[in-house]
Amino acid sequence: MTLRSLASLVAVAAILPLAACGTGGNARMQLYPLEGAIAKADPTLVIEATARNTNGTSGPLTFRLPGRVKCEGTWSSLTPRTVSQSSGVSLTLRKTGGELGGERRTVAGVNNGEIYAVCSDGTRVQGTFIIGSGTASGTGTASDTNGNVYKLLF
Hints:
The protein has 154 residues and is mainly beta. It has one domain. It contains two helices and ten strands; from the N terminus they run H-E-H-E-E-E-E-E-E-E-E-E. It has helices at residues 3-19, 37-41, and strands spanning 26-35, 47-52, 58-65, 69-78, 81-88, 99-106, 110-119, 124-132, 138-144, 149-153. It has an eight-stranded antiparallel beta barrel. A hairpin with a 5-residue loop joins strand 2 and strand 3 (58-65). It starts with a helix and ends with a strand.
């Protein structure tokens, strides 16, 4: 395996937390109401959200609040990277003439993300989450302009 293919594999692993939850570039997230009117009305309710374009670092997010209130917005995940440049002369038979190139690698660790959505009734939902590089799960919190607080899991 070349260093470039290894770097590509690591980059894909950083996006895996969202991509592994679904298929075709879509992922499922769950919002669990913890506080507010929604939690008081039904503490067992789970709001299913769909994140699209999970093979990238941001994309559309859709879900429905109780009462069939449609919400649309964006998710975004910040994946830090390191960049290095290399140059030099090689005296081996395989690489005569030297070597020049660059490399980008995903930094292992915890990556931050955000969600933001506007609903058809004017409600705005905003939250943050964290994911580990190369993991298939994440956690965070979100709140809306109606005083509801949610636990976000995927």
